[in-house]
Amino acid sequence: MIVNDPKQSEAQAPADSPPEAPAAGATDAALVAAQAKAEENWNHYLRAVAEMENFRKRSERELENARKFAVERFAQDLVTVADALEAATSAAAGGGAAAHLEGIQATLRQLYRAFEKAGIQVIDPAGQSFDPAWHEAMVALDSDAAPPNTVLEVVQKGYSLNGRLLRPARVVVSRSAEAGAAGQRPN
Protein backbone atom coordinates (compact mmCIF):
# COMPACT_ATOMS: atom_id res chain seq x y z
CA MET A 1 0.00 0.00 0.00
CA ILE A 2 1.19 3.34 -0.95
CA VAL A 3 0.44 6.19 1.35
CA ASN A 4 0.95 9.77 0.37
CA ASP A 5 2.96 11.48 3.06
CA PRO A 6 2.77 15.30 2.85
CA LYS A 7 6.31 15.71 4.26
CA GLN A 8 7.71 13.39 1.65
CA SER A 9 6.05 15.26 -1.18
CA GLU A 10 7.52 18.61 -0.04
CA ALA A 11 11.01 17.12 0.02
CA GLN A 12 10.60 15.86 -3.52
CA ALA A 13 9.64 19.19 -5.04
CA PRO A 14 9.82 19.39 -8.81
CA ALA A 15 13.28 20.20 -10.23
CA ASP A 16 12.04 22.98 -12.48
CA SER A 17 10.94 25.28 -9.67
CA PRO A 18 13.39 28.22 -9.24
CA PRO A 19 15.67 28.28 -6.16
CA GLU A 20 15.19 31.10 -3.72
CA ALA A 21 17.15 34.17 -4.87
CA PRO A 22 19.31 36.01 -2.31
CA ALA A 23 18.17 39.43 -1.26
CA ALA A 24 19.01 42.25 -3.69
CA GLY A 25 20.99 44.17 -1.05
CA ALA A 26 23.27 41.20 -0.34
CA THR A 27 24.07 40.80 -4.06
CA ASP A 28 24.95 44.50 -4.44
CA ALA A 29 27.19 44.38 -1.37
CA ALA A 30 28.98 41.26 -2.65
CA LEU A 31 29.47 42.92 -6.05
CA VAL A 32 30.89 46.10 -4.48
CA ALA A 33 33.23 44.02 -2.30
CA ALA A 34 34.41 41.99 -5.30
CA GLN A 35 35.03 45.18 -7.32
CA ALA A 36 36.98 46.71 -4.43
CA LYS A 37 39.09 43.56 -4.14
CA ALA A 38 39.68 43.55 -7.91
CA GLU A 39 40.74 47.23 -7.78
CA GLU A 40 43.11 46.50 -4.88
CA ASN A 41 44.65 43.57 -6.76
CA TRP A 42 45.03 45.71 -9.89
CA ASN A 43 46.86 48.39 -7.87
CA HIS A 44 49.16 45.75 -6.37
CA TYR A 45 49.89 44.48 -9.87
CA LEU A 46 50.68 47.98 -11.17
CA ARG A 47 53.02 48.65 -8.22
CA ALA A 48 54.80 45.35 -8.81
CA VAL A 49 55.24 46.16 -12.51
CA ALA A 50 56.57 49.64 -11.65
CA GLU A 51 59.00 48.19 -9.08
CA MET A 52 60.31 45.70 -11.61
CA GLU A 53 60.75 48.44 -14.21
CA ASN A 54 62.63 50.62 -11.69
CA PHE A 55 64.79 47.64 -10.69
CA ARG A 56 65.60 46.93 -14.34
CA LYS A 57 66.57 50.57 -14.99
CA ARG A 58 68.66 50.79 -11.81
CA SER A 59 70.44 47.54 -12.71
CA GLU A 60 71.18 48.80 -16.23
CA ARG A 61 72.53 52.09 -14.81
CA GLU A 62 74.76 50.27 -12.29
CA LEU A 63 76.02 47.90 -14.97
CA GLU A 64 76.81 50.83 -17.27
CA ASN A 65 78.75 52.57 -14.47
CA ALA A 66 80.61 49.34 -13.73
CA ARG A 67 81.62 49.07 -17.38
CA LYS A 68 82.50 52.74 -17.65
CA PHE A 69 84.66 52.91 -14.52
CA ALA A 70 86.07 49.36 -14.43
CA VAL A 71 89.48 50.58 -15.59
CA GLU A 72 89.66 53.40 -13.06
CA ARG A 73 92.54 51.88 -11.06
CA PHE A 74 94.40 51.13 -14.30
CA ALA A 75 93.81 54.66 -15.50
CA GLN A 76 95.23 56.09 -12.26
CA ASP A 77 98.38 54.04 -12.79
CA LEU A 78 98.72 55.28 -16.36
CA VAL A 79 98.53 58.86 -15.14
CA THR A 80 101.77 58.42 -13.20
CA VAL A 81 103.42 57.03 -16.34
CA ALA A 82 102.40 60.16 -18.20
CA ASP A 83 103.90 62.30 -15.45
CA ALA A 84 107.21 60.45 -15.68
CA LEU A 85 107.33 60.81 -19.45
CA GLU A 86 106.59 64.54 -19.21
CA ALA A 87 109.38 64.97 -16.66
CA ALA A 88 111.79 63.04 -18.91
CA THR A 89 110.81 65.19 -21.88
CA SER A 90 111.56 68.36 -19.92
CA ALA A 91 114.93 67.00 -18.77
CA ALA A 92 115.97 65.81 -22.23
CA ALA A 93 115.00 69.14 -23.82
CA GLY A 94 117.75 70.93 -21.88
CA GLY A 95 120.38 68.23 -22.53
CA GLY A 96 120.37 68.45 -26.33
CA ALA A 97 119.68 64.77 -26.94
CA ALA A 98 117.34 65.37 -29.88
CA ALA A 99 116.75 61.73 -30.73
CA HIS A 100 116.03 60.88 -27.10
CA LEU A 101 113.65 63.77 -26.84
CA GLU A 102 111.86 62.80 -30.06
CA GLY A 103 111.38 59.22 -28.83
CA ILE A 104 109.94 60.34 -25.51
CA GLN A 105 107.60 62.79 -27.23
CA ALA A 106 106.37 60.07 -29.59
CA THR A 107 105.75 57.77 -26.59
CA LEU A 108 103.87 60.51 -24.81
CA ARG A 109 101.69 61.13 -27.90
CA GLN A 110 100.92 57.41 -28.02
CA LEU A 111 100.02 57.38 -24.36
CA TYR A 112 97.65 60.34 -24.83
CA ARG A 113 95.96 58.53 -27.72
CA ALA A 114 95.48 55.51 -25.44
CA PHE A 115 94.06 57.84 -22.79
CA GLU A 116 91.60 59.24 -25.32
CA LYS A 117 90.42 55.78 -26.34
CA ALA A 118 89.91 54.83 -22.66
CA GLY A 119 87.94 58.01 -21.91
CA ILE A 120 90.75 59.68 -19.94
CA GLN A 121 90.85 63.45 -20.42
CA VAL A 122 93.81 65.67 -19.50
CA ILE A 123 93.02 68.68 -17.30
CA ASP A 124 95.44 71.47 -18.22
CA PRO A 125 93.85 74.67 -16.87
CA ALA A 126 96.60 77.24 -17.54
CA GLY A 127 95.02 80.71 -17.84
CA GLN A 128 91.58 79.50 -16.73
CA SER A 129 89.68 80.40 -13.57
CA PHE A 130 90.50 78.27 -10.55
CA ASP A 131 87.87 75.56 -9.98
CA PRO A 132 88.32 73.70 -6.66
CA ALA A 133 86.32 70.75 -8.03
CA TRP A 134 88.98 70.14 -10.72
CA HIS A 135 92.09 71.99 -9.46
CA GLU A 136 94.25 71.82 -6.34
CA ALA A 137 95.95 75.11 -5.44
CA MET A 138 99.55 74.45 -4.43
CA VAL A 139 100.55 78.13 -4.10
CA ALA A 140 98.79 81.48 -4.35
CA LEU A 141 100.98 84.26 -5.77
CA ASP A 142 100.39 88.00 -5.84
CA SER A 143 99.73 89.10 -9.39
CA ASP A 144 98.59 92.33 -10.96
CA ALA A 145 98.85 90.82 -14.46
CA ALA A 146 96.09 88.24 -13.96
CA PRO A 147 92.70 88.54 -12.24
CA PRO A 148 92.44 86.89 -8.82
CA ASN A 149 91.78 83.13 -8.80
CA THR A 150 93.31 82.59 -12.22
CA VAL A 151 95.61 79.63 -12.82
CA LEU A 152 99.05 81.10 -13.48
CA GLU A 153 100.96 77.85 -13.83
CA VAL A 154 100.16 74.15 -13.93
CA VAL A 155 102.51 72.27 -11.62
CA GLN A 156 100.99 68.87 -12.50
CA LYS A 157 98.18 68.18 -14.96
CA GLY A 158 94.96 66.64 -13.73
CA TYR A 159 93.02 63.77 -15.26
CA SER A 160 89.40 62.66 -15.47
CA LEU A 161 87.85 59.38 -16.55
CA ASN A 162 84.53 59.73 -18.39
CA GLY A 163 83.81 62.95 -16.53
CA ARG A 164 84.86 61.62 -13.08
CA LEU A 165 87.93 63.22 -11.52
CA LEU A 166 90.92 60.90 -11.19
CA ARG A 167 93.33 63.55 -9.95
CA PRO A 168 92.93 67.31 -9.74
CA ALA A 169 95.34 69.55 -11.62
CA ARG A 170 97.91 70.95 -9.18
CA VAL A 171 98.23 74.63 -9.93
CA VAL A 172 99.64 78.00 -8.92
CA VAL A 173 96.80 80.51 -8.49
CA SER A 174 96.88 84.30 -8.68
CA ARG A 175 95.65 86.56 -5.93
CA SER A 176 95.50 90.33 -5.80
CA ALA A 177 98.47 92.14 -4.27
CA GLU A 178 96.13 93.71 -1.67
CA ALA A 179 94.86 90.29 -0.56
CA GLY A 180 98.42 89.06 -0.26
CA ALA A 181 99.47 92.05 1.86
CA ALA A 182 96.39 91.70 4.09
CA GLY A 183 97.05 88.02 4.60
CA GLN A 184 100.67 88.45 5.72
CA ARG A 185 101.51 88.28 9.41
CA PRO A 186 103.78 90.83 10.97
CA ASN A 187 107.21 89.55 12.02
Report what the structure shows.
The structure is a single chain. The strands form two sheets. This protein has a three-stranded antiparallel sheet. A three-stranded mixed sheet has the order 2-6-3. Helix 3 runs antiparallel to helix 4. Helices cover 55% and strands 18% of the residues. A hairpin with a 2-residue loop joins strand 4 and strand 5. The longest helix is centred in the N-terminal third of the chain and has 45 residues. The mean pLDDT is 82. With 187 residues, the protein is of the alpha+beta class.
Summarize the structure.
The protein has 187 residues and is an alpha+beta fold. The chain has helices spanning 6-11, 24-68, 72-95, 98-118, 177-183, and strands at 120-123, 135-142, 151-156, 158-161, 164-167, 169-175.
Keywords:
187 residues, alpha+beta, Nucleotide Exchange Factor Grpe, Chain A, domain 2, three-stranded antiparallel beta sheet
Write the layout of secondary structure elements.
Blueprint: H1 6-11, H2 24-68, H3 72-95, H4 98-118, E1 120-123, E2 135-142, E3 151-156, E4 158-161, E5 164-167, E6 169-175, H5 177-183
Parallel strand pairs: 2-6
Antiparallel strand pairs: 1-4, 3-6, 4-5
Low-confidence stretches: none
Element-level helix/strand string: HHHHEEEEEEH
CATH architecture descriptor of one domain: Roll
Instruction: Specify the helix fraction band.
Output: 55-70%
CATH top level class name of one domain: Mainly Beta
User: CATH superfamily of one domain, please?
Assistant: Head domain of nucleotide exchange factor GrpE
How would you characterize the largest beta sheet? 3 strands, antiparallel
CA-CA gap between termini: 140 Å
Report the CATH topology name of one domain. Nucleotide Exchange Factor Grpe, Chain A, domain 2
